[in-house]
Automatic annotation (TrEMBL):
Xref: Pfam families: PhoU
Organism: Methanofollis fontis
Function field: Plays a role in the regulation of phosphate uptake.
Summary of subunit composition and partner proteins: Homodimer.
Protein name as it appears in the record: Phosphate-specific transport system accessory protein PhoU
Amino acid sequence: MSDKFHEELKLLRREFTDYSKFAADMLKDAMRALQDADSNLAADVNARKRRLSDLSDHFDERLLTLIALYQPMAHDLRTIVCTLKMNVGFYRIGRYGKDVAILVPDFASGHLGRMLNLPHMAEMVFSMIDDVIAAYESGDVARLDDFSTRDDCVDDMRYSAFREGVTYMMEDPRNINRCMDYVMVARYLERCGDHCCTMAERIHYMVTGERVEIS
């Protein structure tokens, strides 16, 4: 394979890593806006959705162009296919950030207790996102070894948030709207964890050529 191809692929991976961090920051900033009831930050996250969509389309086109022009094989082809799949995952994570951001005005009057432990759940998901990005960037798949355990923890926290939310709603019907929003955010975070597991599987295959299942 030509040096020009490898230079293009190397540059694309660097730029894709920046895009991944951009999408991750949408989710992180949205959760910060939710905790602080910061409508300005939420509006800023919502405004980034156009940039997110443009970048996703941009990387799809560049990756498919590389395949068409150079017809890569083995590790190079796995890298391109992995990046295509990760593009889907990070686009969805950024969109979930937007979905959380549009709920922020509902909490102008404050939060219930510990927000059903959503901040802790978010930190767990953020750590998975950060490790996915780092593993893609460095090829260090050891960062992904405990993803099944971490995903189980995220799933447990989602169900715990649901049960606690139902308790709040039964205690006082005025809590229903806010608790429904909390349960929705827990669902978004759980889905982000699932996207991380799927991306971790792809990265493992990209690096080692062996398929693993993270459930």
